[in-house]
Please model this.
Amino acid sequence: MIRPLLVLLLFLSSLTAAAECLTRGTGDLGIVIERASGSIKVLDTTRHEVLFHIEELGDLSHASAVYSRDGRYAFIFGRDGGLSKVDILCGTIVKRLVQGGNSIGGAISQDGSLVAVSNYEPGGVKIFSSEDLSPVAEIPATPLEDGEKRSKTVGLVDAPGQRFAVSLYDTGESWVIDMQDPKAPAIRRFTDIGRLPYDALITPDGRYYITGLFGQDGLSLLDLWYPEKGPRLILENYGKGEEKLPVYKMPHLEGWAIAGHRAFLPAVGRHEVLVVDMSDWSQVARIPVHGQPVFVMARPDGRQVWVNYAFPDNDTIQVIDTESMQIVKTFQPGKGALHMEFTPRGEEVWISIRDKDEIQVYDTRTLEQTHSLPAEKPSGIFFTSRAHQTGL
Amino acid sequence: MRLKLTVPNLLLTALTVALAGVANADIDPERQAELLYLLKHDCGSCHGMRLEGGLGPALKPERFRQWDTKTLAAAILYGRPGTPMPPWQPFITEPEAYWLAGQLKKGIRP
Model:
């Protein structure tokens, strides 16, 4: 019979495909985190295909990834402290270690030689060689009053000058870590930046490090061209005297939604997207939206901003026209619309839909869905174009 | 400047008293599955999908040894003022909160 033979052949070819590496560029590839199963898929954004499925990456709740500068290796930061180096051309784990007890993202240095991981438990930053993940430096966070624990670290990003910036959740600090000499990290500590910093970002030019504050109004801004001036509060009068809504998921400040001289930010505890004039950091507008924004992501050309929402509104996505600041589309792609990633030049956006076990691809011109790819409980999507962007 | 995140115990006690008398009602299996899904994915965004902690603390039975079920159910329903823990009352009934609290005290991996 021909059928069993065909099945056998397909089975054998799938085995060989997993064992062999691809010979191609990686500029149109990416990965999606399958957070519940501790696996990832390697994605081809040109052919809308899954190239590899890679398992045994540990607890990937809240996992994120950065890329080597050649775009071949993804460094994946897991919640369980796992740090994995994955070869996306071979679909294999090159090296994996559990470097901490509980971690929250990481960054790769300007020159690509160092990978830094931000840890909750024990609080601090650990820095590894991107080559073999051997330890390079350990930077413990400020101890808490009880003397046992250290502050959790959040918002770790790379900055120009072979630096990393990080914020301390419990103690309200921002630190700039200079790694010019990997054997002797030079740390500059800024205290009293504001209460409970929960996440941070760096502008794409690498100049401003901006930290979101959960415990008070406003954001903390540090100008890395003039760090000696210290951080200052911006938008500190935003929402003053208004009751905040309960927050069912912390917003993310990953990336920086910029259109012209305006930046778009998620408001904390409010159903609003904030618009800020970057020339003087004043508030331009508050755009009422469907729920509490989690990600506010600009299409690479800056003409649109796509927004997803916290529970219980995480079935909805809205698209804002940045010129008119009007919502041009509201739609329900499915429950658990967790993350969005634009293709490098922005013609498509890929959206993880957790409860449908799929990635939906949208044409950003027509705002219509064009493709669907299977993925198990997908969360973060990370394309290799991040390899060449400061802060991503 | 350092923010102290002490539990406002008095308030919690008051809320707990309000909850007293709610029996551990039966939650049907379908709703139990929904609650565990919520625990994993939505509570999990702060506490970790394995409840081993994140920006929020780990939700392990060792931590709740000192807590009675009522207090834990109250924290779920009304949140913990002074911390980012929000009230889940709009989405979870009192018997459901009791059931979840019981599960957490027993120690579950959703």
About this structure: The mean pLDDT of chain A is 92. The helical segments of chain A are 2-19. The first helix of chain A runs from residue 2 to 19. The two ends of chain A are 53 Å apart (CA to CA).
